[in-house]
Amino acid sequence: MESRNNRQYVGGSRYSGAQSPKEDKIEMIFGSRPILEAMLAGKTLEKIFLQRGTRNSTTDEISTLAKKLDVPVATVPVEKLNNLTRKNHQGAVAFISAISYAPLDEIVTSLFEKGKVPLLLILDRITDVRNFGSIARNAECMGVDAIVIPSRGGAQINADAIKTSAGALHLVPVCREANLKNTLDYLKDYGVQLVACTEKTEDQLTEAAVDMTGPTAILMGSEEDGISPEYLKRADARLRIPLMGQISSLNVSVATGIILYEAMRQRLNEAKA
Fold this sequence. Notes:
- The strands form two sheets. Strands 7-6-5-9-8-10 form a six-stranded parallel sheet, sandwiched between helices. It has a four-stranded mixed sheet with strand order 1-4-2-3.
- The chain contains nine helices and ten strands.
- Residues 1-25 have low confidence and may be disordered.
- The two termini are 37 Å apart.
- 39% of the residues are buried.
- It is α/β, with parallel strands linked by helices.
- 34% of the residues lie in helices and 17% in strands.
Protein backbone atom coordinates (compact mmCIF):
# COMPACT_ATOMS: atom_id res chain seq x y z
CA MET A 1 0.00 0.00 0.00
CA GLU A 2 1.45 3.32 -0.97
CA SER A 3 2.08 5.93 1.69
CA ARG A 4 -0.63 8.55 2.10
CA ASN A 5 1.14 10.75 4.62
CA ASN A 6 1.32 13.68 2.23
CA ARG A 7 -2.38 13.87 1.39
CA GLN A 8 -4.32 16.88 2.58
CA TYR A 9 -7.88 16.63 3.87
CA VAL A 10 -10.28 18.52 6.10
CA GLY A 11 -11.92 17.24 9.25
CA GLY A 12 -15.68 16.92 9.10
CA SER A 13 -18.86 15.44 10.39
CA ARG A 14 -18.64 11.64 10.48
CA TYR A 15 -14.95 10.86 10.95
CA SER A 16 -11.77 12.88 10.85
CA GLY A 17 -11.69 12.16 7.11
CA ALA A 18 -15.14 13.52 6.20
CA GLN A 19 -15.39 16.66 4.10
CA SER A 20 -16.61 20.01 5.32
CA PRO A 21 -19.19 21.93 3.26
CA LYS A 22 -17.80 24.50 0.87
CA GLU A 23 -18.90 26.22 -2.31
CA ASP A 24 -19.71 23.84 -5.16
CA LYS A 25 -18.00 26.02 -7.74
CA ILE A 26 -14.87 24.42 -9.18
CA GLU A 27 -11.97 26.86 -9.37
CA MET A 28 -9.26 26.80 -12.03
CA ILE A 29 -5.60 27.73 -11.68
CA PHE A 30 -3.59 28.95 -14.66
CA GLY A 31 0.18 28.77 -15.11
CA SER A 32 2.72 26.23 -13.92
CA ARG A 33 4.12 28.31 -11.05
CA PRO A 34 0.69 29.05 -9.45
CA ILE A 35 -0.23 25.36 -9.79
CA LEU A 36 2.98 24.28 -8.05
CA GLU A 37 2.49 26.87 -5.29
CA ALA A 38 -1.10 25.71 -4.77
CA MET A 39 0.04 22.13 -4.23
CA LEU A 40 2.82 23.20 -1.88
CA ALA A 41 0.24 25.23 0.08
CA GLY A 42 -1.89 22.13 0.59
CA LYS A 43 -4.62 22.80 -1.96
CA THR A 44 -6.36 19.61 -3.12
CA LEU A 45 -6.30 19.47 -6.92
CA GLU A 46 -8.71 17.38 -8.96
CA LYS A 47 -6.60 17.22 -12.15
CA ILE A 48 -3.71 18.99 -13.86
CA PHE A 49 -3.38 19.60 -17.61
CA LEU A 50 0.07 20.42 -19.01
CA GLN A 51 0.72 21.46 -22.60
CA ARG A 52 2.50 18.81 -24.63
CA GLY A 53 6.09 19.71 -25.51
CA THR A 54 6.58 22.35 -22.78
CA ARG A 55 8.77 20.68 -20.21
CA ASN A 56 10.89 22.65 -17.75
CA SER A 57 12.01 22.48 -14.13
CA THR A 58 8.65 23.75 -12.85
CA THR A 59 6.57 21.24 -14.80
CA ASP A 60 8.95 18.51 -13.64
CA GLU A 61 8.33 19.58 -10.04
CA ILE A 62 4.59 19.58 -10.68
CA SER A 63 4.69 16.06 -12.09
CA THR A 64 6.81 14.76 -9.20
CA LEU A 65 4.64 16.32 -6.51
CA ALA A 66 1.42 15.33 -8.26
CA LYS A 67 2.53 11.70 -8.32
CA LYS A 68 3.29 11.88 -4.61
CA LEU A 69 -0.17 13.33 -3.90
CA ASP A 70 -2.03 11.04 -6.34
CA VAL A 71 -3.19 13.97 -8.48
CA PRO A 72 -3.81 12.97 -12.12
CA VAL A 73 -1.67 14.81 -14.69
CA ALA A 74 -2.56 14.84 -18.39
CA THR A 75 -0.21 16.03 -21.13
CA VAL A 76 -2.46 17.53 -23.80
CA PRO A 77 -2.24 19.62 -26.98
CA VAL A 78 -2.67 23.37 -26.64
CA GLU A 79 -6.13 23.11 -28.26
CA LYS A 80 -7.35 21.19 -25.23
CA LEU A 81 -6.17 23.93 -22.89
CA ASN A 82 -7.75 26.58 -25.10
CA ASN A 83 -11.04 24.69 -24.86
CA LEU A 84 -10.79 24.66 -21.07
CA THR A 85 -10.30 28.40 -20.80
CA ARG A 86 -9.91 31.52 -22.90
CA LYS A 87 -7.56 33.06 -20.36
CA ASN A 88 -3.78 33.12 -20.75
CA HIS A 89 -3.05 29.66 -19.35
CA GLN A 90 0.67 29.65 -20.28
CA GLY A 91 0.53 25.92 -20.98
CA ALA A 92 -0.85 24.76 -17.63
CA VAL A 93 -4.34 24.46 -16.17
CA ALA A 94 -5.50 22.79 -12.95
CA PHE A 95 -8.84 22.30 -11.24
CA ILE A 96 -9.13 22.73 -7.48
CA SER A 97 -11.19 19.88 -6.09
CA ALA A 98 -14.70 20.54 -4.79
CA ILE A 99 -13.91 18.19 -1.89
CA SER A 100 -10.86 17.14 0.08
CA TYR A 101 -9.79 13.52 -0.18
CA ALA A 102 -9.29 11.31 2.86
CA PRO A 103 -6.60 8.67 3.56
CA LEU A 104 -8.24 5.23 3.38
CA ASP A 105 -5.81 3.55 5.76
CA GLU A 106 -6.55 6.11 8.49
CA ILE A 107 -10.31 5.66 8.06
CA VAL A 108 -10.13 1.86 8.19
CA THR A 109 -7.81 1.89 11.21
CA SER A 110 -10.03 4.41 13.01
CA LEU A 111 -13.15 2.32 12.40
CA PHE A 112 -11.57 -0.83 13.81
CA GLU A 113 -10.13 1.04 16.79
CA LYS A 114 -13.63 2.37 17.60
CA GLY A 115 -15.09 -1.12 17.38
CA LYS A 116 -17.10 -0.30 14.26
CA VAL A 117 -17.61 -2.64 11.32
CA PRO A 118 -16.47 -0.98 8.08
CA LEU A 119 -18.78 -0.77 5.08
CA LEU A 120 -16.86 0.61 2.11
CA LEU A 121 -17.84 1.28 -1.49
CA ILE A 122 -15.22 0.92 -4.24
CA LEU A 123 -15.98 2.38 -7.67
CA ASP A 124 -14.07 1.11 -10.70
CA ARG A 125 -14.13 3.75 -13.46
CA ILE A 126 -17.55 5.31 -12.86
CA THR A 127 -17.26 8.11 -15.43
CA ASP A 128 -20.70 9.72 -15.51
CA VAL A 129 -20.75 12.67 -13.10
CA ARG A 130 -24.43 12.36 -12.23
CA ASN A 131 -24.20 8.63 -11.74
CA PHE A 132 -21.36 9.29 -9.35
CA GLY A 133 -23.38 11.89 -7.46
CA SER A 134 -26.36 9.54 -7.19
CA ILE A 135 -24.11 6.74 -5.96
CA ALA A 136 -22.68 9.03 -3.27
CA ARG A 137 -26.21 9.90 -2.15
CA ASN A 138 -27.09 6.20 -1.91
CA ALA A 139 -23.89 5.55 0.02
CA GLU A 140 -24.58 8.24 2.60
CA CYS A 141 -28.17 7.08 3.12
CA MET A 142 -27.11 3.43 3.55
CA GLY A 143 -24.35 4.12 6.08
CA VAL A 144 -21.24 3.68 3.91
CA ASP A 145 -18.12 4.73 5.79
CA ALA A 146 -16.03 5.75 2.76
CA ILE A 147 -16.13 5.79 -1.03
CA VAL A 148 -12.96 4.67 -2.81
CA ILE A 149 -12.22 5.85 -6.36
CA PRO A 150 -9.22 5.56 -8.70
CA SER A 151 -7.11 8.66 -9.25
CA ARG A 152 -7.47 8.14 -13.01
CA GLY A 153 -10.39 7.03 -15.13
CA GLY A 154 -13.24 8.18 -12.90
CA ALA A 155 -15.72 11.04 -13.00
CA GLN A 156 -14.57 14.51 -12.07
CA ILE A 157 -16.06 15.56 -8.76
CA ASN A 158 -17.53 18.87 -9.85
CA ALA A 159 -20.58 21.02 -9.10
CA ASP A 160 -22.92 18.61 -10.91
CA ALA A 161 -21.66 15.69 -8.83
CA ILE A 162 -22.08 17.66 -5.60
CA LYS A 163 -25.60 18.77 -6.56
CA THR A 164 -26.72 15.28 -7.65
CA SER A 165 -25.36 13.84 -4.40
CA ALA A 166 -27.62 16.25 -2.44
CA GLY A 167 -24.56 17.22 -0.41
CA ALA A 168 -23.56 13.63 0.40
CA LEU A 169 -20.09 14.23 -1.05
CA HIS A 170 -19.53 16.66 1.83
CA LEU A 171 -20.53 13.99 4.36
CA VAL A 172 -19.01 10.70 3.20
CA PRO A 173 -15.20 10.55 3.01
CA VAL A 174 -13.89 9.98 -0.52
CA CYS A 175 -10.53 8.25 -0.91
CA ARG A 176 -8.62 8.65 -4.17
CA GLU A 177 -6.28 5.73 -4.79
CA ALA A 178 -3.45 5.58 -7.32
CA ASN A 179 -3.62 1.79 -7.63
CA LEU A 180 -6.93 0.03 -6.93
CA LYS A 181 -5.29 -3.39 -7.18
CA ASN A 182 -2.99 -2.56 -4.28
CA THR A 183 -5.93 -1.06 -2.41
CA LEU A 184 -7.99 -4.25 -2.77
CA ASP A 185 -5.05 -6.36 -1.58
CA TYR A 186 -4.58 -4.02 1.39
CA LEU A 187 -8.24 -4.33 2.40
CA LYS A 188 -8.19 -8.13 2.08
CA ASP A 189 -5.06 -8.27 4.26
CA TYR A 190 -6.92 -6.12 6.80
CA GLY A 191 -9.75 -8.64 6.98
CA VAL A 192 -12.25 -6.78 4.80
CA GLN A 193 -14.21 -9.07 2.46
CA LEU A 194 -14.64 -7.87 -1.12
CA VAL A 195 -18.10 -8.31 -2.61
CA ALA A 196 -18.37 -7.64 -6.35
CA CYS A 197 -21.72 -6.66 -7.85
CA THR A 198 -21.51 -8.10 -11.35
CA GLU A 199 -23.51 -9.79 -14.07
CA LYS A 200 -20.62 -12.23 -14.57
CA THR A 201 -21.82 -14.75 -12.00
CA GLU A 202 -24.69 -17.15 -11.38
CA ASP A 203 -24.89 -16.23 -7.67
CA GLN A 204 -27.88 -13.98 -7.09
CA LEU A 205 -28.30 -11.28 -4.46
CA THR A 206 -30.64 -13.03 -2.02
CA GLU A 207 -31.04 -12.98 1.73
CA ALA A 208 -28.72 -15.95 2.21
CA ALA A 209 -26.23 -15.18 -0.56
CA VAL A 210 -23.42 -13.42 1.31
CA ASP A 211 -23.10 -12.29 4.91
CA MET A 212 -22.27 -8.58 4.80
CA THR A 213 -22.53 -7.93 8.53
CA GLY A 214 -18.75 -8.19 8.86
CA PRO A 215 -16.12 -5.80 7.47
CA THR A 216 -17.15 -5.45 3.83
CA ALA A 217 -16.17 -3.50 0.72
CA ILE A 218 -18.65 -3.54 -2.17
CA LEU A 219 -17.10 -3.21 -5.61
CA MET A 220 -19.05 -1.65 -8.48
CA GLY A 221 -17.86 -1.50 -12.09
CA SER A 222 -17.97 1.01 -14.91
CA GLU A 223 -21.05 1.85 -16.94
CA GLU A 224 -19.44 0.44 -20.07
CA ASP A 225 -17.84 -2.90 -19.21
CA GLY A 226 -18.33 -3.53 -15.51
CA ILE A 227 -15.58 -4.47 -13.07
CA SER A 228 -12.06 -4.90 -14.44
CA PRO A 229 -11.01 -8.59 -14.59
CA GLU A 230 -7.96 -8.00 -12.38
CA TYR A 231 -10.22 -6.58 -9.65
CA LEU A 232 -13.01 -9.12 -10.14
CA LYS A 233 -10.68 -12.05 -9.53
CA ARG A 234 -9.78 -10.58 -6.13
CA ALA A 235 -13.39 -10.59 -4.95
CA ASP A 236 -14.31 -12.96 -2.13
CA ALA A 237 -17.87 -13.12 -3.46
CA ARG A 238 -19.65 -12.18 -6.69
CA LEU A 239 -23.33 -11.29 -6.73
CA ARG A 240 -25.73 -10.32 -9.48
CA ILE A 241 -29.06 -8.62 -8.99
CA PRO A 242 -31.91 -10.81 -10.29
CA LEU A 243 -34.00 -9.15 -13.03
CA MET A 244 -37.44 -10.15 -14.31
CA GLY A 245 -37.85 -7.72 -17.22
CA GLN A 246 -36.53 -7.81 -20.78
CA ILE A 247 -33.77 -5.26 -20.18
CA SER A 248 -30.69 -7.12 -19.02
CA SER A 249 -29.00 -4.53 -16.82
CA LEU A 250 -29.58 -1.71 -14.36
CA ASN A 251 -28.10 1.76 -14.18
CA VAL A 252 -25.02 1.53 -11.94
CA SER A 253 -26.39 4.01 -9.39
CA VAL A 254 -29.61 1.98 -9.07
CA ALA A 255 -27.66 -1.28 -8.76
CA THR A 256 -25.46 0.30 -6.09
CA GLY A 257 -28.50 1.37 -4.11
CA ILE A 258 -29.93 -2.16 -4.21
CA ILE A 259 -26.83 -3.97 -2.98
CA LEU A 260 -26.11 -1.31 -0.35
CA TYR A 261 -29.68 -1.68 0.90
CA GLU A 262 -29.13 -5.42 1.33
CA ALA A 263 -25.94 -4.74 3.32
CA MET A 264 -27.78 -2.21 5.50
CA ARG A 265 -30.76 -4.58 5.97
CA GLN A 266 -28.47 -7.36 7.17
CA ARG A 267 -26.70 -5.06 9.59
CA LEU A 268 -29.95 -3.70 11.03
CA ASN A 269 -31.23 -7.25 11.57
CA GLU A 270 -27.91 -8.20 13.21
CA ALA A 271 -28.21 -5.23 15.56
CA LYS A 272 -31.75 -6.30 16.59
CA ALA A 273 -30.77 -9.90 17.24
